[in-house]
Amino acid sequence: MGQGRKGSSDKKQSQKNRDDSPEPENGNKCRVCRFPLLVALLQLLLGVAVTAVAFLMLAISPSLMAREAPHWAGIILCLVSIVGFFLYCITYQPDEKTSAQFLVKLLYFVLCTTGLVISVLVVAFAGHHHSQASSFICQQTGEDCVCVLDQSDPIARTFDYKGVSDCEAITGMLTFYFLLQILLNLAQALVCAVGAFIMWKDRYQVFFAGTQIRSPSSQQWQKV
Length: 224
Prior knowledge:
Blueprint: H1 2-20, H2 37-60, H3 71-91, H4 99-134, E1 137-141, E2 144-148, E3 158-161, H5 168-203, E4 212-214, E5 221-223
Antiparallel strand pairs: 1-2, 2-3, 4-5
Helix pairs in contact: 2-3, 2-5, 3-4, 4-5
C-alpha cells in the first residue's frame, strides 16, 4: 500500500512538473508577423519607395544635389533590410549560441540605429528644401529654370535647375516630392527605431542565454 501511494504521488508530482514547464512555441504562429521579418519587410518597402521618389525627382532636374534627391538613403535602408532577412533565416536554427547569430544580431542593431539617424537627416534636409521650394519665384531661361526667394533682393541666392522645360515642375511636383520624402523617411525612422528597440529589449540582451532548468528547491523554472 505504501509503495502504491508513493507511486501515485510520484506520478502527480511528475504531472505537476510538466504543467509548470514552459509551453513550446506555437509552430503555427504567423511567421510573417514575427520579428525581424515584419520590420525587414517594412524597411525594404520604404527603402524602395524612398529610392523611387528620389529618381523621380532627378527626372525633373538632373542638377539636383544628393541631399535633395536622397536615393542613397533608400539604397542603404534596403541593405539594412537584407541583413534583417538573413537574421530571420538563422534565428530559428536549433543552436542559439553560434557566433554567426551574435554578429548578425549586433550588426542589425547597429544598422537599425544608423538607419534611424540617416532617416532623420533626410527628413531635416527635405523639410528645409520643401520650405524653400514653396516660396520660390521662378522664371524660364532657355532650357533651365532659375528660381529666387526674393526678387526684390539683388544679392539673393538663385537656384538654377537645369534641363527643366516648365517651371511648374519645380514649384509643383518637386515640392510635392519633398513632402513625400518627409513622410516616407519619418515612417522609415519609426520602423528603424522599433527594430533597434526590439533588438535591444528582446534579442540583444539574451544573445547567449542558456537553457531553462527546474530548481529542485523552489520547483520553479528558471532561466540561466
